[in-house]
Amino acid sequence: MTGILLQAQGGGFFGDPINMVLIMASLAVFYFFMLRPNQKKAKEAKEVLENLKKGDKIVTNGGLHGKISKLDETTADIEIARNTVITIERNAISTELTAALNKN
Predict the structure, then answer these.
(1) H helices of 1-104, where?
(2) What's the whole-model pTM score?
């Protein structure tokens, strides 16, 4: 009976080096496949929003295409048709198309 009790005692879940290696490996996989790409994408989106200027052609998160007619710190006036201008939040802009259109 004493032998069974002695075998049952261990260093706990983190006491086994193999378990610790598996935990570290799973954290590394989680970081490199989930967190890092999201951080990179968020950084690129922030750079796009910071580099916007009047006359850029953009697409909003809602799918509206237009051209920037005026920019403020938090809002942008977008011309979506001749004599039709809407005001949107600046962070609602998802894509800047001017560079892509100029390549073609």
Answers:
(1) 2-8, 17-30, 36-50, 98-103
(2) 0.61
**Phi and psi angles of residue 27, each rounded to the nearest 5 degrees, phi first:** -65, -40
Instruction: Show the tokens assigned to 3.
Output: 């032998």
Residue type, 91: N
Exposed, middle or buried: residue 104 (CB in 10 Å: 0-12, 13-18, 19+)? exposed
Q: What is the DSSP string of 37-99?
A: HHHHHHHHHHHHHHT--TT-EEEETT--EEEEEEE-SSEEEEEEETTEEEEEEGGGEEEE-HH
Token representation of residue 59 = 């697409």
Greater confidence (40 vs 13) lies with 40
Measure the CA–CA gap between 90 and 59, rounded to whole angstroms: 11
For residue 95, give the nearest of 51, 34, 37 by alpha carbon.
Answer: 51
Q: Given a cut of 90, is residue 82 above it in pLDDT?
A: yes
